[in-house]
Amino acid sequence: MQGPYRRRPPDGPEPQGPPSRLWRRPARDIGYLPPRRPHRRRSAAGTIVGALGGVAGLCTVAIVAYSLAGPDRPAAGAGTTQAPPNAGSRQAAFAGPLYRSGALDPVGCALPPIRQHDEDSMRVFLDRLSDCLDNAWRRQFAKVGLAGFAAPSRVFWSESGSSPCGSYPAPGAAAFYCPANDTMYVGLGDVVETAGDEPVSHYAVYARVIAHEYGHHVQEDAGILEYGHRLMAGSAAEARDETSRRIELQAQCFAGAFLSAQRDSLPMTSSQYRAVLADARARGDDGQPDGRRDHGSGADYAGWVARGYTQRVLSSCNTWTATPADVS
After folding, report:
1. Measuring CA to CA, how many Å separate 83 from each of 64, 163, 181?
2. Domain definitions of the chain by residue range
3. Which of 92, 224, 229, 288 is a plausible cystine mate for 219, CB 3.0–4.6 Å?
4. Direct distance between the N- and C-terminal alpha carbons of the chain, in angstroms, rounded to an integer
């Protein structure tokens, strides 16, 4: 990627087909590792727990994994065991105050270019993008007096490792959020590979992946994610998959709303916007060999990004009141 990012992004939908290039389908998001036992939450503000070098290809993974640690075995990075201020409830998911907070604020998110096959430039890009996400969402929670927000920790990996939610890398997975220790995990090289070799000049594709994972942290701190997982635990397969789709598509919408709010300092050209939507569409559930329908159709997986981007206000991201046809 050469030079700074310039030009204001489009204000409306763009053509959604893949860009004119040799293109192969991105890897499918691997979904959830459901909780086996209740996870422990920390109460202190988030800190960076690690930054491991490497250019892991930004994965199209939109993974929310719950802790495999039991109540007698604290997860790494966990703090107190008290319930979070925004304990998961139906109210949080369906009508929580976050939906009344309007649009995210611009936070001056000027990011450095990513250089092809360069680990350091990807790491700096992801770290600064995460700073922007911290600032934007902290402000958003404060707007409506929503207590309990703490920025997630970050681990950028270039070598295999483990988290309270499982080992990494996993097949097809280059990024995930682990609620057990409030940490985002991103593979610095796996991210490009799992994005179907999307050129790094399409930086918005990679920004969308991280903004999506961060969206799961927003759901966690707002009490939405815990409610969703409780609902899934007591549901039959079809209802469980629908709940998963509502979680995933909301994270897509949150990502679109964030990218829209930063459109002056992190511009998205028509080419960038098309690449984001084409990448998202290709990560949908359509035509998957296992037949799973836990993330949403390609049209919806792209459509909720576009919805957040064009409508901007978080009330537009309420997938919990959407009809089943809109989260198919």
Report:
1. 19, 22, 14
2. 50-70+77-327
3. 224
4. 36
Residue pair 125/211 in contact (Cβ under 8 Å)? The answer is: no
Dist. CA 315–CA 97, nearest whole Å: 10
Please state, as a whole number, how many other Cβ atoms lie within 10 Å of the Cβ of residue 115: 15
pLDDT in tens, 164-183: 888 888 776 788 899 989 99
Give long-range contacts, CB 8 A cutoff, 24+ apart: 291-295: 292/31, 292/241, 293/241, 293/245, 293/328, 294/31, 294/32, 294/240, 294/241, 294/244, 294/245, 294/248, 295/28, 295/29, 295/31, 295/62, 295/244, 295/245, 295/248, 295/249
146: its two tokens: 């929503």
Let me know how many helices (H) and strands (E) the chain has, helices first.
8, 7
Per-residue model confidence as pLDDT tens digits over 261-315: 999 998 889 999 999 999 999 989 987 777 888 899 999 999 999 999 999 999 9
What global pTM score does this model have? 0.81
38-47, 158-167, 210-219, range with the lowest pLDDT: 38-47
Rounded Cα distance, 180 and 35, in Å: 9
Q: 153 pairs with which residues across the strands?
A: 183
Residue 267 one-letter amino acid: P
Which residue bears the tokens 């920790």? 153
Least confident piece of the model among 78-87, 179-188, 222-231: 78-87
Task: Please state the rounded mean pLDDT for residues 232-242.
Answer: 91
Q: Does the N-terminal peptide bond of residue 169 adopt cis geometry, omega within 30 degrees of 0? A: yes
Query: Any idea which residue has 């290709």 for tokens?
Result: 282
- Mean pLDDT for the stretch of residues 84-103: 88
Residue 209 CA to residue 55 CA, distance in Å, equals 15
Q: How many residues does the chain have?
A: 328
Give the DSSP per-residue string, 143-184.
Answer: HTT-TT--PPEEEEESS-EEETTEEESBTTBSEEEETTTTEE
Secondary structure (DSSP) of 96-120:
-GGGGS-BPPP-----PPPPTT-HH
* CB contact set of 311 (below 8 Å; sequence gap of 6+): 257
